[in-house]
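Data availability excerpt. The first of two example chains:
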Amino acid sequence: MHTLRESTLDPAAALAIHDLPAGEPWLHEVKRGQTLRIVDLEGNQAVDTIFYNAADTAESYSVTDTLQRQGGIYLSAGSVLYSNRGRPMLAIVADTCGRHDTLGGACAAESNTVRYALQKKFMHSCRDNYLLALARADIGMDKRDLVPNVNFFMNVPVTEGGGLSFEDGLSAPGKYVELRAEMDVLVLVSNCPQLNNPCNAYNPTPVRFVIWGASPSA
Protein backbone atom coordinates (compact mmCIF):
# COMPACT_ATOMS: atom_id res chain seq x y z
CA MET A 1 0.00 0.00 0.00
CA HIS A 2 1.37 3.44 -0.97
CA THR A 3 0.08 6.41 1.00
CA LEU A 4 1.39 9.79 -0.15
CA ARG A 5 0.95 12.97 1.87
CA GLU A 6 2.67 16.33 1.39
CA SER A 7 3.96 18.30 4.36
CA THR A 8 2.87 21.82 5.28
CA LEU A 9 6.07 22.55 7.23
CA ASP A 10 8.51 25.20 5.99
CA PRO A 11 12.25 24.40 6.24
CA ALA A 12 12.87 28.10 6.88
CA ALA A 13 11.13 27.66 10.25
CA ALA A 14 13.10 24.54 11.23
CA LEU A 15 15.09 24.27 14.45
CA ALA A 16 17.93 22.40 12.74
CA ILE A 17 19.05 21.12 9.36
CA HIS A 18 21.80 18.51 9.06
CA ASP A 19 23.24 17.02 5.88
CA LEU A 20 24.73 13.55 6.34
CA PRO A 21 27.35 12.45 3.81
CA ALA A 22 27.07 9.15 1.98
CA GLY A 23 27.97 6.14 4.09
CA GLU A 24 28.12 8.00 7.43
CA PRO A 25 26.39 7.43 10.80
CA TRP A 26 24.34 9.91 12.87
CA LEU A 27 22.87 9.83 16.38
CA HIS A 28 20.48 12.56 17.49
CA GLU A 29 17.72 13.14 20.03
CA VAL A 30 14.29 14.27 18.85
CA LYS A 31 11.96 15.54 21.57
CA ARG A 32 8.32 14.56 21.98
CA GLY A 33 6.17 16.62 19.62
CA GLN A 34 9.05 17.58 17.35
CA THR A 35 8.96 16.56 13.70
CA LEU A 36 11.87 14.97 11.85
CA ARG A 37 12.02 15.03 8.05
CA ILE A 38 14.44 12.72 6.21
CA VAL A 39 15.17 13.93 2.69
CA ASP A 40 16.51 11.67 -0.06
CA LEU A 41 18.60 14.36 -1.75
CA GLU A 42 19.70 12.48 -4.89
CA GLY A 43 17.24 9.56 -4.94
CA ASN A 44 17.20 5.87 -3.99
CA GLN A 45 19.47 6.20 -0.96
CA ALA A 46 18.73 3.72 1.85
CA VAL A 47 18.58 5.34 5.29
CA ASP A 48 18.85 2.55 7.89
CA THR A 49 17.32 3.83 11.13
CA ILE A 50 16.69 2.58 14.68
CA PHE A 51 14.72 4.46 17.33
CA TYR A 52 15.13 4.31 21.13
CA ASN A 53 13.32 5.86 24.07
CA ALA A 54 15.80 8.60 25.01
CA ALA A 55 15.01 8.19 28.72
CA ASP A 56 15.36 4.39 28.72
CA THR A 57 17.15 2.88 25.73
CA ALA A 58 16.00 -0.63 26.68
CA GLU A 59 12.77 0.50 25.01
CA SER A 60 13.34 0.49 21.25
CA TYR A 61 11.56 0.31 17.91
CA SER A 62 9.87 -3.06 17.41
CA VAL A 63 9.21 -4.28 13.89
CA THR A 64 6.90 -7.04 15.17
CA ASP A 65 4.72 -4.71 17.26
CA THR A 66 4.60 -2.16 14.44
CA LEU A 67 3.64 -4.56 11.66
CA GLN A 68 1.16 -6.48 13.78
CA ARG A 69 -0.70 -3.32 14.75
CA GLN A 70 -0.86 -1.87 11.24
CA GLY A 71 -1.48 -5.16 9.46
CA GLY A 72 1.10 -4.59 6.73
CA ILE A 73 4.83 -4.84 6.10
CA TYR A 74 5.58 -1.42 4.57
CA LEU A 75 5.55 2.00 6.20
CA SER A 76 4.02 5.13 4.69
CA ALA A 77 1.97 8.17 5.75
CA GLY A 78 -0.34 7.22 8.59
CA SER A 79 1.92 4.45 9.93
CA VAL A 80 2.79 4.47 13.63
CA LEU A 81 6.09 3.01 14.82
CA TYR A 82 5.69 1.09 18.09
CA SER A 83 8.22 0.11 20.74
CA ASN A 84 8.98 -3.28 22.21
CA ARG A 85 6.72 -2.21 25.10
CA GLY A 86 3.79 -1.62 22.77
CA ARG A 87 3.91 2.16 22.99
CA PRO A 88 3.84 4.58 20.03
CA MET A 89 7.26 6.08 19.39
CA LEU A 90 6.73 8.05 16.18
CA ALA A 91 4.00 8.65 13.62
CA ILE A 92 4.65 9.17 9.90
CA VAL A 93 2.79 12.41 9.23
CA ALA A 94 3.98 13.09 5.67
CA ASP A 95 5.58 10.99 2.94
CA THR A 96 6.29 11.69 -0.72
CA CYS A 97 7.98 8.34 -1.42
CA GLY A 98 5.10 6.08 -0.39
CA ARG A 99 6.78 2.92 0.84
CA HIS A 100 9.59 2.10 3.25
CA ASP A 101 11.09 -1.29 4.06
CA THR A 102 10.85 -2.98 7.47
CA LEU A 103 12.23 -6.46 6.69
CA GLY A 104 15.52 -6.11 4.80
CA GLY A 105 17.60 -5.33 7.89
CA ALA A 106 20.95 -3.57 8.05
CA CYS A 107 23.94 -4.72 6.03
CA ALA A 108 26.76 -6.28 8.06
CA ALA A 109 29.92 -8.28 7.50
CA GLU A 110 27.87 -11.46 7.72
CA SER A 111 25.20 -10.37 5.22
CA ASN A 112 27.84 -9.04 2.83
CA THR A 113 29.36 -12.53 2.84
CA VAL A 114 26.07 -14.41 2.45
CA ARG A 115 24.44 -12.13 -0.13
CA TYR A 116 27.46 -11.23 -2.24
CA ALA A 117 30.87 -12.91 -1.80
CA LEU A 118 33.36 -13.89 0.87
CA GLN A 119 35.70 -11.09 -0.15
CA LYS A 120 32.93 -8.55 0.55
CA LYS A 121 32.97 -9.42 4.27
CA PHE A 122 35.08 -6.48 5.35
CA MET A 123 33.38 -3.78 3.29
CA HIS A 124 31.93 -0.94 5.38
CA SER A 125 28.40 -1.71 6.57
CA CYS A 126 25.44 -0.22 8.41
CA ARG A 127 26.13 -2.36 11.46
CA ASP A 128 29.63 -0.86 11.60
CA ASN A 129 28.08 2.61 11.34
CA TYR A 130 25.70 1.94 14.23
CA LEU A 131 28.54 0.75 16.44
CA LEU A 132 30.73 3.72 15.51
CA ALA A 133 27.97 6.19 16.38
CA LEU A 134 27.29 4.52 19.73
CA ALA A 135 30.99 4.36 20.60
CA ARG A 136 31.48 8.04 19.79
CA ALA A 137 28.44 9.01 21.86
CA ASP A 138 29.77 7.05 24.87
CA ILE A 139 26.30 6.61 26.41
CA GLY A 140 26.66 3.01 27.54
CA MET A 141 25.15 1.42 24.44
CA ASP A 142 26.80 -1.25 22.29
CA LYS A 143 26.02 -4.11 19.90
CA ARG A 144 23.66 -5.70 22.42
CA ASP A 145 21.36 -2.70 21.94
CA LEU A 146 21.02 -3.10 18.16
CA VAL A 147 17.57 -4.21 17.01
CA PRO A 148 15.91 -4.66 13.58
CA ASN A 149 15.73 -1.34 11.77
CA VAL A 150 13.63 0.62 9.28
CA ASN A 151 15.11 1.14 5.80
CA PHE A 152 13.67 4.45 4.66
CA PHE A 153 13.40 4.79 0.85
CA MET A 154 14.48 1.17 0.31
CA ASN A 155 12.48 -1.21 -1.92
CA VAL A 156 12.46 -4.82 -0.69
CA PRO A 157 9.50 -6.74 -2.15
CA VAL A 158 8.48 -10.11 -0.76
CA THR A 159 8.62 -12.81 -3.43
CA GLU A 160 5.92 -15.41 -4.08
CA GLY A 161 8.11 -17.95 -2.30
CA GLY A 162 8.29 -15.82 0.82
CA GLY A 163 11.81 -14.51 0.27
CA LEU A 164 13.07 -10.94 -0.01
CA SER A 165 14.17 -9.26 -3.23
CA PHE A 166 16.42 -6.19 -3.07
CA GLU A 167 15.30 -4.00 -5.97
CA ASP A 168 15.80 -0.54 -7.44
CA GLY A 169 14.38 2.09 -5.11
CA LEU A 170 11.02 3.78 -5.56
CA SER A 171 12.31 7.14 -4.41
CA ALA A 172 13.67 10.09 -6.40
CA PRO A 173 15.66 13.27 -5.72
CA GLY A 174 13.95 15.42 -3.08
CA LYS A 175 11.51 12.77 -1.84
CA TYR A 176 11.04 12.82 1.93
CA VAL A 177 9.40 11.14 4.89
CA GLU A 178 8.34 13.07 7.98
CA LEU A 179 7.92 11.62 11.47
CA ARG A 180 6.43 13.22 14.59
CA ALA A 181 7.95 11.96 17.86
CA GLU A 182 5.40 10.62 20.35
CA MET A 183 8.09 10.41 23.05
CA ASP A 184 11.65 11.70 23.39
CA VAL A 185 13.58 9.44 21.00
CA LEU A 186 17.17 8.77 20.07
CA VAL A 187 17.49 8.41 16.30
CA LEU A 188 20.36 6.13 15.25
CA VAL A 189 21.08 6.34 11.52
CA SER A 190 23.38 4.68 9.05
CA ASN A 191 23.27 6.44 5.70
CA CYS A 192 23.87 3.12 3.99
CA PRO A 193 27.35 2.61 2.47
CA GLN A 194 26.30 -0.53 0.57
CA LEU A 195 27.84 -0.83 -2.91
CA ASN A 196 26.58 -4.28 -3.83
CA ASN A 197 22.82 -4.06 -4.39
CA PRO A 198 20.67 -1.74 -6.50
CA CYS A 199 18.74 -0.16 -3.62
CA ASN A 200 20.88 2.98 -4.03
CA ALA A 201 21.91 2.40 -7.67
CA TYR A 202 25.28 1.12 -6.36
CA ASN A 203 26.09 4.71 -5.46
CA PRO A 204 25.60 5.91 -1.84
CA THR A 205 24.55 9.57 -1.68
CA PRO A 206 23.96 12.19 1.06
CA VAL A 207 20.68 12.73 2.87
CA ARG A 208 19.25 15.65 4.87
CA PHE A 209 17.56 15.79 8.25
CA VAL A 210 15.26 18.69 9.12
CA ILE A 211 13.80 19.11 12.62
CA TRP A 212 10.89 21.36 13.62
CA GLY A 213 9.78 22.25 17.14
CA ALA A 214 6.62 20.90 18.71
CA SER A 215 3.39 22.63 17.77
CA PRO A 216 1.49 24.30 20.66
CA SER A 217 -1.10 21.49 20.60
CA ALA A 218 1.48 18.66 20.72
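And the second chain:
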Amino acid sequence: MNILRKALQRGLTPGNIISYLCLESMRLWGVCFGTLRLRCKAFLLGVAVGPGARAHGPVGLLRWPGGSIRIGAGASLISSWRRATAASLAAPVRLRVFGPGAAIEIGTGAQLSGTSITARSQRVSIGRQVLLAPNCVIVDSDFHAHWPPEARATEPGMERDAPVSIGDYAWIGMNCLILKGVSIGEGAMIGAGSVVTRDVPPFCLAAGAPARVLRRLGSEDGKTRTPGQRSGA
Protein backbone atom coordinates (compact mmCIF):
# COMPACT_ATOMS: atom_id res chain seq x y z
CA MET A 1 0.00 0.00 0.00
CA ASN A 2 2.88 2.37 0.73
CA ILE A 3 4.23 1.91 -2.83
CA LEU A 4 0.75 2.53 -4.25
CA ARG A 5 0.30 5.68 -2.16
CA LYS A 6 3.66 7.07 -3.29
CA ALA A 7 2.83 6.32 -6.92
CA LEU A 8 -0.49 8.16 -6.61
CA GLN A 9 1.24 11.14 -4.98
CA ARG A 10 3.48 11.40 -8.04
CA GLY A 11 0.48 11.78 -10.29
CA LEU A 12 0.15 8.23 -11.61
CA THR A 13 -3.37 7.01 -12.23
CA PRO A 14 -4.60 3.62 -11.03
CA GLY A 15 -4.78 2.52 -14.68
CA ASN A 16 -1.11 3.35 -15.19
CA ILE A 17 -0.14 1.49 -12.05
CA ILE A 18 -2.09 -1.62 -13.05
CA SER A 19 -0.61 -1.48 -16.55
CA TYR A 20 2.91 -1.24 -15.14
CA LEU A 21 2.34 -4.14 -12.75
CA CYS A 22 0.96 -6.28 -15.58
CA LEU A 23 3.96 -5.52 -17.78
CA GLU A 24 6.42 -6.29 -15.00
CA SER A 25 4.70 -9.52 -14.03
CA MET A 26 4.64 -10.73 -17.65
CA ARG A 27 8.31 -9.81 -18.06
CA LEU A 28 9.46 -11.52 -14.87
CA TRP A 29 7.35 -14.64 -15.39
CA GLY A 30 8.40 -14.91 -19.04
CA VAL A 31 12.12 -14.61 -18.38
CA CYS A 32 12.11 -16.90 -15.31
CA PHE A 33 10.12 -19.68 -16.94
CA GLY A 34 11.82 -19.25 -20.33
CA THR A 35 15.32 -19.37 -18.83
CA LEU A 36 14.50 -22.40 -16.71
CA ARG A 37 13.11 -24.21 -19.73
CA LEU A 38 16.14 -23.24 -21.85
CA ARG A 39 18.62 -24.55 -19.27
CA CYS A 40 16.74 -27.80 -18.73
CA LYS A 41 16.53 -28.44 -22.47
CA ALA A 42 20.19 -27.46 -22.97
CA PHE A 43 21.29 -29.84 -20.22
CA LEU A 44 19.39 -32.73 -21.78
CA LEU A 45 20.61 -32.03 -25.32
CA GLY A 46 24.24 -31.24 -24.53
CA VAL A 47 24.05 -27.55 -25.40
CA ALA A 48 26.48 -25.23 -23.57
CA VAL A 49 24.82 -22.20 -21.94
CA GLY A 50 26.98 -19.57 -20.25
CA PRO A 51 26.26 -17.86 -16.94
CA GLY A 52 23.65 -15.12 -17.04
CA ALA A 53 22.20 -16.21 -20.38
CA ARG A 54 18.42 -15.88 -20.36
CA ALA A 55 15.42 -16.61 -22.52
CA HIS A 56 12.02 -14.99 -22.72
CA GLY A 57 9.62 -17.56 -24.12
CA PRO A 58 10.40 -20.94 -25.72
CA VAL A 59 13.68 -21.54 -27.56
CA GLY A 60 14.02 -24.28 -30.17
CA LEU A 61 17.25 -26.28 -29.80
CA LEU A 62 17.96 -29.04 -32.31
CA ARG A 63 21.45 -30.57 -32.16
CA TRP A 64 22.52 -33.47 -34.35
CA PRO A 65 25.01 -35.83 -32.63
CA GLY A 66 28.51 -34.51 -33.25
CA GLY A 67 27.33 -30.94 -33.78
CA SER A 68 27.62 -28.20 -31.18
CA ILE A 69 25.65 -25.22 -29.94
CA ARG A 70 27.18 -22.73 -27.50
CA ILE A 71 25.29 -19.79 -26.00
CA GLY A 72 27.58 -17.22 -24.41
CA ALA A 73 27.37 -15.60 -21.01
CA GLY A 74 24.73 -12.90 -20.69
CA ALA A 75 23.13 -13.68 -24.05
CA SER A 76 19.43 -12.86 -24.41
CA LEU A 77 17.07 -15.01 -26.50
CA ILE A 78 13.68 -13.36 -27.00
CA SER A 79 10.90 -15.59 -28.30
CA SER A 80 7.84 -13.74 -27.00
CA TRP A 81 6.01 -10.80 -28.56
CA ARG A 82 5.70 -9.37 -25.05
CA ARG A 83 9.42 -8.62 -25.03
CA ALA A 84 9.88 -7.72 -28.69
CA THR A 85 10.18 -3.97 -29.06
CA ALA A 86 9.54 -2.75 -32.60
CA ALA A 87 7.77 -5.75 -34.13
CA SER A 88 5.88 -8.91 -33.35
CA LEU A 89 7.81 -12.17 -33.72
CA ALA A 90 7.04 -14.56 -36.56
CA ALA A 91 8.44 -17.51 -34.57
CA PRO A 92 10.52 -18.31 -31.47
CA VAL A 93 14.32 -18.31 -31.54
CA ARG A 94 15.54 -21.50 -33.22
CA LEU A 95 19.11 -22.83 -33.18
CA ARG A 96 19.66 -25.95 -35.28
CA VAL A 97 22.74 -27.92 -36.33
CA PHE A 98 22.18 -30.67 -38.89
CA GLY A 99 25.29 -32.83 -38.80
CA PRO A 100 28.65 -33.72 -37.22
CA GLY A 101 31.03 -30.78 -37.25
CA ALA A 102 28.31 -28.19 -37.69
CA ALA A 103 28.34 -25.52 -34.99
CA ILE A 104 26.50 -22.45 -33.77
CA GLU A 105 28.27 -20.05 -31.43
CA ILE A 106 26.44 -17.16 -29.78
CA GLY A 107 28.79 -14.58 -28.27
CA THR A 108 28.73 -12.95 -24.85
CA GLY A 109 25.86 -10.51 -24.42
CA ALA A 110 24.36 -11.10 -27.87
CA GLN A 111 20.63 -10.41 -28.24
CA LEU A 112 18.44 -12.51 -30.55
CA SER A 113 14.75 -11.82 -31.21
CA GLY A 114 12.86 -14.53 -33.02
CA THR A 115 16.06 -15.45 -34.86
CA SER A 116 16.45 -18.66 -36.84
CA ILE A 117 20.02 -19.96 -37.24
CA THR A 118 20.71 -23.17 -39.12
CA ALA A 119 24.18 -24.71 -39.52
CA ARG A 120 24.02 -27.74 -41.79
CA SER A 121 27.71 -28.62 -42.01
CA GLN A 122 29.67 -25.43 -41.23
CA ARG A 123 30.07 -22.94 -38.38
CA VAL A 124 27.79 -19.96 -37.76
CA SER A 125 29.46 -17.54 -35.36
CA ILE A 126 27.74 -14.57 -33.70
CA GLY A 127 30.09 -12.15 -31.92
CA ARG A 128 29.89 -10.32 -28.63
CA GLN A 129 26.93 -8.00 -28.05
CA VAL A 130 25.56 -8.50 -31.54
CA LEU A 131 21.98 -7.22 -31.91
CA LEU A 132 19.70 -9.33 -34.08
CA ALA A 133 16.37 -7.57 -34.56
CA PRO A 134 13.10 -9.55 -34.95
CA ASN A 135 12.70 -12.32 -37.52
CA CYS A 136 16.22 -12.60 -38.95
CA VAL A 137 17.33 -15.83 -40.65
CA ILE A 138 20.94 -17.04 -40.91
CA VAL A 139 21.97 -20.13 -42.89
CA ASP A 140 25.22 -21.78 -44.00
CA SER A 141 23.71 -23.68 -46.92
CA ASP A 142 21.42 -23.62 -49.98
CA PHE A 143 20.12 -27.04 -48.83
CA HIS A 144 19.82 -28.25 -52.44
CA ALA A 145 22.23 -28.69 -55.35
CA HIS A 146 22.01 -25.95 -57.96
CA TRP A 147 22.53 -28.13 -61.00
CA PRO A 148 21.21 -30.13 -62.73
CA PRO A 149 17.65 -28.95 -62.05
CA GLU A 150 16.19 -32.45 -61.87
CA ALA A 151 18.57 -33.27 -58.98
CA ARG A 152 17.54 -30.39 -56.74
CA ALA A 153 14.98 -32.44 -54.87
CA THR A 154 17.38 -35.29 -54.15
CA GLU A 155 20.97 -33.92 -54.08
CA PRO A 156 21.97 -32.03 -50.90
CA GLY A 157 24.85 -30.07 -52.49
CA MET A 158 26.77 -29.96 -49.22
CA GLU A 159 30.04 -29.18 -50.99
CA ARG A 160 28.74 -25.63 -51.50
CA ASP A 161 28.08 -24.98 -47.80
CA ALA A 162 30.12 -22.13 -46.28
CA PRO A 163 30.55 -20.67 -42.76
CA VAL A 164 28.94 -17.43 -41.60
CA SER A 165 30.53 -14.92 -39.23
CA ILE A 166 29.03 -11.81 -37.64
CA GLY A 167 31.55 -9.63 -35.81
CA ASP A 168 31.32 -8.09 -32.36
CA TYR A 169 28.82 -5.26 -31.84
CA ALA A 170 27.19 -5.65 -35.26
CA TRP A 171 23.53 -4.68 -35.57
CA ILE A 172 21.28 -6.63 -37.93
CA GLY A 173 17.91 -4.99 -38.71
CA MET A 174 14.48 -6.61 -38.76
CA ASN A 175 13.63 -9.32 -41.27
CA CYS A 176 17.15 -9.71 -42.65
CA LEU A 177 18.39 -12.84 -44.42
CA ILE A 178 22.09 -13.69 -44.00
CA LEU A 179 23.18 -16.28 -46.54
CA LYS A 180 26.04 -18.79 -46.59
CA GLY A 181 29.66 -17.69 -46.75
CA VAL A 182 28.99 -14.16 -45.50
CA SER A 183 31.27 -12.33 -43.08
CA ILE A 184 29.89 -9.19 -41.44
CA GLY A 185 32.55 -7.06 -39.80
CA GLU A 186 32.75 -5.65 -36.30
CA GLY A 187 30.36 -2.80 -35.59
CA ALA A 188 28.62 -3.04 -38.97
CA MET A 189 24.92 -2.23 -39.40
CA ILE A 190 22.55 -4.02 -41.78
CA GLY A 191 19.35 -2.22 -42.78
CA ALA A 192 15.97 -3.84 -42.16
CA GLY A 193 14.75 -6.29 -44.77
CA SER A 194 18.18 -6.79 -46.35
CA VAL A 195 19.41 -9.94 -48.08
CA VAL A 196 23.15 -10.22 -47.36
CA THR A 197 24.92 -12.29 -50.00
CA ARG A 198 28.47 -10.92 -49.72
CA ASP A 199 30.88 -9.69 -47.05
CA VAL A 200 30.30 -6.39 -45.24
CA PRO A 201 33.41 -4.55 -43.93
CA PRO A 202 33.67 -3.46 -40.29
CA PHE A 203 31.90 -0.27 -39.22
CA CYS A 204 29.91 0.07 -42.43
CA LEU A 205 26.21 0.48 -43.16
CA ALA A 206 24.81 -1.94 -45.74
CA ALA A 207 21.24 -2.39 -46.95
CA GLY A 208 19.19 -3.71 -49.84
CA ALA A 209 18.37 -6.96 -51.60
CA PRO A 210 21.06 -7.89 -52.31
CA ALA A 211 22.71 -5.72 -49.66
CA ARG A 212 25.42 -3.29 -50.69
CA VAL A 213 27.62 -1.01 -48.62
CA LEU A 214 26.15 2.49 -48.45
CA ARG A 215 28.72 4.29 -46.35
CA ARG A 216 31.18 3.99 -43.50
CA LEU A 217 29.96 4.62 -39.97
CA GLY A 218 31.65 7.18 -37.77
CA SER A 219 31.33 9.09 -34.52
CA GLU A 220 28.88 11.51 -36.16
CA ASP A 221 26.29 8.72 -36.30
CA GLY A 222 25.89 8.95 -32.55
CA LYS A 223 25.29 12.72 -32.53
CA THR A 224 21.92 14.43 -32.57
CA ARG A 225 21.53 16.46 -35.76
CA THR A 226 19.68 19.75 -35.97
CA PRO A 227 16.63 19.98 -38.30
CA GLY A 228 17.67 20.19 -41.91
CA GLN A 229 21.18 18.85 -41.29
CA ARG A 230 21.96 15.97 -43.64
CA SER A 231 23.93 12.89 -42.76
CA GLY A 232 27.05 12.06 -44.72
CA ALA A 233 26.76 9.49 -47.51
